[in-house]
Amino acid sequence: MSISLIKHGEDRMIIEEGPHSTIPEDEFFDAVETGLDKIEEDRQLRVRLKYQSQQSQISNAGSVHSTGNLEAEDEISQQAEDFGTGAQAQSHKLWPEIDRICTEQLTQARQGVGEDGNGWQLFADEGEMKMYRREEEVDGMVIDPLKSCHVVKGVTAREMCHYFFDPAYRNDWETTLEDVQIVDNVAPDTLVFLQTYKRIWPASQRDALFWSHMRRITDNLDVGANDTWIVCNHSNQNEEYPPANQGKCVRIYLTVILVCQTYLPPGKDSKTATRDDLTCKITYCSTVNPGGWAPATVLRAIYKKEYPKFLKRFTGYVIDQCKARPIMY
């Protein structure tokens, strides 16, 4: 994501992304940080306007049911008995890869950090939320694996994964998103997405093509866990899907897993628990190659600032969405 200034004549400069950057890294970081801050300000404004609109509708007779047909249809599709089992996706040619990657990522997510000198470094510690990274580069590009552990109240594992997986809600919490396309509707619990992200000057615009699978885990549950759900995302290069680095976008390559566990207090079960009884333990792991040419110091500075904001924003959004709804296990 470094840029080169190419002079054409006396009074014209073209800024382009390339490996021969002349812009100082601190100026590059400041420009990206300013762009991200502006996106966050716009998101907060949309949230306030949406809340005001909802309050206005609620005050009018007959408006209390205006939750939207899309959300209703989505929740119906997720009520099928085999949702989260992969049963409907197993005939798809991507299934062997999906099953293998999900199993590998869940195993890695369940491993601890720091106990065996495996290189994890704590970089954010805010109450229940702790974030670790391990410094790694491929061909000079930072791809530091990230691992986050968090605990929130008032939601279930399935609810947390539901809002992470379903594209109907993604624009509400993923602030840099410009567009989401479903390029392959494999099954209700398995989709292939092409996501385009907003351009943040001076970086080029990015996109990502990946499958996403939501699954209920039924084996090797942690002691005391009522249930466990995951969402796993992994980049895919299937020839049937839009190719990488065609046109204005640089392709991002990612592997992400969100692991969520529901815990209930002694004497409570899914039939008797209220929202006040719910505790959700979250593990979020990601490895992202942003493509292009990005100074390592700039990338790591951005990750250090933005990842904690992302996890707090997303979990806060889910808590807010669920607080007045029936509990979904």
UniProtKB/TrEMBL annotation:
Domain (START) ranges: 116-314
Main subcellular location: cytoplasm
GO biological process, one term: ER to Golgi ceramide transport
CDD domains in the record: START_STARD11-like
Cellular localization per UniProt: Cytoplasm
GO MF entries: lipid binding
A GO CC term assigned to this protein in UniProt: cytoplasm
UniProt keyword terms in alphabetical order: Coiled coil, Cytoplasm, Lipid transport, Transport
Xref: SMART domains: START
InterPro entries: STARD11_START, START-like_dom_sf, START_lipid-bd_dom, START_lipid_transfer
Full protein name: START domain-containing protein
Provenance organism: Anopheles darlingi
Phylogenetic placement of the source organism: Eukaryota, Metazoa, Ecdysozoa, Arthropoda, Hexapoda
